[in-house]
Specification:
The complex is a heterodimer of chains A (303) and B (503).
Chain A (H helix, E strand, L loop, with lengths): L2 H28 L7 H17 L3 H26 L4 H20 L12 E3 L14 E3 H19 L1 H11 L1 H6 L4 H27 L11 H11 L4 H23 L6 H5 L1 H14 L2 H7 L11
Helix pairs in contact in A: 1-5, 1-8, 1-9, 1-10, 2-3, 2-4, 2-8, 2-9, 3-4, 3-8, 5-6, 9-10, 9-12
Chain B lengths: L5 E10 L2 E11 L4 E5 L6 H8 L7 E6 L2 E3 L4 H7 L1 E4 L11 H6 L6 H15 L14 H14 L4 E5 L7 H16 L3 E6 L2 H7 L2 E6 L2 E6 L6 H9 L17 E10 L9 E9 L3 E5 L6 H9 L12 E3 L2 E2 L5 H6 L2 E4 L14 H9 L5 E2 L2 E2 L1 H14 L16 H14 L4 E5 L7 H16 L3 E5 L3 H7 L2 E6 L2 E2 L3 E2 L5 H15 L1
Parallel strand pairs in B: 3-8, 3-9, 6-7, 7-8, 13-20, 13-21, 16-19, 19-20
Antiparallel strand pairs in B: 1-2, 1-4, 4-5, 9-10, 11-12, 11-14, 14-15, 17-18, 21-22, 21-23
Helix pairs in contact in B: 11-12, 11-13, 12-13, 13-14
Classes of the chains: A mainly alpha (303), B alpha/beta (503).
Chain lengths: 303, 503
């Protein structure tokens, strides 16, 4: 298997934790709430998912537990920021640290344990094509993540619910004045974001690398937050961004196995370097940011 | 008499020690165009917020069709059949017209698009349903707001200062629409402080002063002078056009200034040329959003000019195109920005410190340290000389009323003894008394030989103040008009010129 085949076949699975968490954060941010607790929420979900799967609960139950854990943390965040109107940045950071701490605490007895992953579902015919065939053999969660991406794109672009979400993020006062419950809508968006982050964590700990190690999320939550800005709050761009990060992280591994004499620390920092460059390029396009940006992002709503 | 559609009985609302409304009674008949008349700060907006459910009254009762109701939220108001067109629109700029409408009115995009076109033709509210709101002019946005309200089939339509954003000709068009609506039995609450327009379209008027109802009249039976007296509680200050001054050297000269912007919500300036001389007031008329903010930032020095424009702005005979805001102030330029809270003053700081912001060079500091004694004296002088009503120089700027803070900011800039004073919307949201005091000061300043440039939306204000007027429309500046030889309708024509050409 050469490097290109290796990257193509693994790219989507590597992208899935980024993608799921970023889509959740995208929904929250579109409603005007900046939740920086994604990293911790993912870690918490990863720990819960791993514990359930390790104790024989199965992957479905593991993912349910992880998403509920994510919702729980995000509701705590929502209570403080939407209910008490605290600063979203500070609260998000605190919740994130709390999530990391909880995952370390509950995960401690399971350190270095492994579980078995799940099998891949191949698209008959397509998966036999040379070189690109690997793209079409993925596990069920990857297929579901791709489905979710399409559904979310459709909802945001073509349904009233999507319009409402964008409206609340653009001008919460106006949304309130035409009769919509701004805080409730934001609460829903934040809870969705929490559930997605939890699921993203569980995917990382029980399927992508099915073993528990403290700190295994390793900055993926932060990349997800960056991806949302990177994708200028558009589903399609976030998807391509996640794929890019998936590919770049695999590229590092491929380079190591090929025996390139580049220090591994430098290679693992590659995705972050790409983030910084892309963010810089995107921020220079003001038109794009104005049209798709979220003016009320991070600001508490007051009538 | 038929049952009023909406009745208020003894409605009161206080914010801390301020009685925004006390014991207000109001009856709106079905199909009436009913004016709420009052100057800034009289409690009109609070009253509308109570009716539209944004705020709840402390005391009193609201009756709808004769039955008592609690209007707890805008959603509840809408369910009753109350629609409101806000002064600062509640539209979503990144969505299209039809998407904005669909957030309020049920139906598919297809159906709504057709209904918007149909309504547009019927009521003279034409607008492209598929356009994004941020591409529309202010007048078009107002049409979208009104259509959005009307499609929800309201029984009562509230319009908050609807003509403040419209050129006179478009205002006439709006009145025609309102008359047709009233003819269909829709009641209209029309909030305004413009007396002429209330006389021309309203069948009833309720006058508010300091939160209390001071009169219920039929506006056609009174002339504007009598209405004004009821509104402000005393005679309007008499006004005489200042006499012509000998005009001296040029203090501001802009030649062919073009500024492209890549911000889709901003306006590009095109070939702007103007000149202000000593002893002259030049007024820039036009509806907000036609490039006023961009022009103001270019003149104040906040927007750096591109190199191709390096010869476009001169002050006091010197090319200042590449100078920043501080450099221009050093030459004797002073500036009163549009936004009092945030740009003109820092709300959280005391008046003493706010005085320091621009007056620091007048001996208020030494070796980089502030001389508080002098700073306090400066603020005190400003408070006394410009009749700023405040507990003292240590009061927070944000605690002052709009009118008093504006008097302080204008006073601060005048005390710098500028050669060129530039004001952007100097009396916006300022009560009548403070506004006329500020205008009086500006004329005195002009008579003492200062060059003054004023951007204002209020045509009446410019006619009081300016020797010459130029109209800003879609980033272009009209020719120079001599105020004494120009009528308001002429200004209005310049305000909508290219918009009409496009239609």
């Amino acid at each position: 298997m050469n490097a290109i085949e290796f990257i193509l076949s693994g790219m989507l699975a590597a992208a899935t934790p980024f993608l799921l968490a970023a889509l959740g954060e995208l929904v929250a941010e579109r409603s005007g709430v900046l939740n920086l607790g994604v990293e911790g929420t993912m870690a918490f979900g990863a720990a819960l998912g791993f514990i359930v799967v390790y104790n024989g609960g199965g992957h479905v139950l593991g993912f349910v537990a992880a998403s509920l854990g994510g919702v729980l943390l995000s509701l705590l965040f929502a209570f403080v920021t939407l209910g008490l109107r605290a600063n979203q940045v500070a609260t998000g950071l605190a919740i994130g640290i709390l999530g990391l701490g909880l995952s370390a605490f509950y995960g401690k007895p399971y350190e270095s344990f492994t579980v078995s992953g799940i099998g891949k579902i191949a698209v008959p015919g397509l998966s036999d094509i040379p070189v690109v065939g690997g793209l079409f053999a993925q596990d069920i969660v990857v297929w579901l993540a791709l489905g979710t991406t399409v559904v979310l794109w459709y909802v945001l672009a073509h349904t009233k619910l999507g319009l409402l979400l964008r409206a609340v993020g653009e001008n919460p006062k106006a949304a309130n004045s035409i009769g919509y419950p701004v805080v409730l809508i934001r609460l829903g968006a934040v809870a969705f974001g929490g559930a997605m982050a939890g699921i993203a964590g569980a995917y990382a700990s029980t399927i992508y690398t099915p073993l528990w190690a403290d700190g295994m999320i390793a900055g993926r939550g932060w990349i997800a937050v960056a991806l949302v800005v990177f994708g200028t709050w558009m589903v399609g761009r976030v998807f391509w961004g996640a794929c890019l990060f998936g590919a770049v992280s695999l590229g590092g591994i491929a380079a190591q196995t090929a025996g390139l004499s580049v220090p591994s620390q430098l290679l693992t920092s590659l995705p972050y370097l790409v983030t910084i460059i892309v963010l810089g390029v995107i921020s220079s396009n003001r038109t794009l940011l104005k049209i798709n940006g979220v003016p009320s992002l991070g600001e508490p709503f007051e009538k | 008499m038929t049952t009023p559609l909406l009745s208020l009985r003894g409605v009161s609302k206080s914010y801390g020690p301020v009685h925004a409304n006390s014991g207000v009674d109001l009856d709106v008949a079905p199909g009436a165009i009913h004016a709420i008349l009052g100057e800034n700060g009289a409690g009109k907006s609070t009253l509308m917020k109570l009716i539209y459910g944004v705020e709840s009254p402390d005391a009193g009762e609201i009756l709808w069709d004769g039955a008592p109701v609690q209007i707890a939220s805008p959603a509840a108001a809408r369910r009753l059949g109350i629609g409101m067109v806000f002064q600062h629109f509640s539209l979503f700029e990144t969505l299209t017209v039809v998407e904005n409408v669909s957030l309020v009115v049920p139906g598919t995009k297809q159906e709504l698009t057709e209904r918007i076109m149909l309504f547009g033709r019927e009521f003279g509210l034409e607008v492209d349903p598929l356009a994004h709101v941020h591409t529309l002019s202010v007048g078009e946005r107002q049409r979208v707001e009104i259509i959005r309200c009307l499609l929800a089939d309201p029984k009562l339509l509230i319009l908050d200062e609807p003509t403040s954003v419209l050129p006179p000709q478009s205002a006439q068009k709006l009145f025609e629409t309102l008359r047709r609506l009233a003819g269909r039995g829709v009641s209209i609450l029309f909030i305004s402080h413009k007396l002429e327009e209330i006389r021309s379209i309203c069948s009833h008027a309720t006058i508010l002063r300091s939160g209390k109802v001071t009169g219920n009249v039929t506006p056609k039976d009174f002339d504007t002078h009598e209405l004004a007296k009821m509104m402000i509680g005393r005679d309007m200050p008499a006004f005489a056009r200042p006499k012509e001054m000998e005009q001296g050297a040029s203090c501001l000269e802009i030649a062919g200034l073009t500024l492209e912007t890549d911000d889709p919500f901003a306006v590009s300036l095109r070939d702007i040329s103007l000149r202000v001389r000593e002893g002259e007031i030049l007024g820039i008329a036009g509806v907000s959003g036609n490039g006023q903010s961009e022009l103001a930032a270019a003149i104040s020095g906040e927007t750096p000019l591109p190199r191709s424009m390096r010869d476009s702005i001169a002050m006091m005979g010197r090319n200042v195109s590449l100078l920043g805001a501080a450099g221009r102030r050093k030459l004797g330029f002073a500036f009163v920005p549009e936004d009092r809270l945030g740009q003109g003053a820092v709300p959280e700081l005391s008046l003493v410190k706010n005085g320091l912001l621009t007056a620091h060079a007048r001996g208020l500091k030494q070796g980089g340290l502030v001389r508080y004694g002098r700073a306090r004296a400066f603020a005190k002088d400003c408070i006394n000389a410009f009749d700023v009503r405040t507990p003292g120089p240590d009061a927070e700027a944000g605690a002052l009323s709009g009118g008093n803070l504006q008097k302080f900011i204008v006073g601060r800039e005048i005390m710098l003894e500028p050669k060129l004073l530039f004001l952007n919307q100097p009396t916006w949201g300022v009560d009548v008394g403070a506004a006329s005091a500020i205008r009086k000061r500006l004329i005195e300043l002009r008579n003492s030989g200062c060059a003054v440039l004023v951007i204002s939306e209020e045509i009446e204000e410019l006619f009081e103040l300016a020797d010459h007027i130029q109209v800003l429309n879609e980033g272009r500046l009209s020719e120079r008009l001599k105020t004494s030889e120009t009528r308001p309708e002429d200004i209005g024509r310049y305000m909508i010129e290219s918009a009409e050409a496009a239609e």
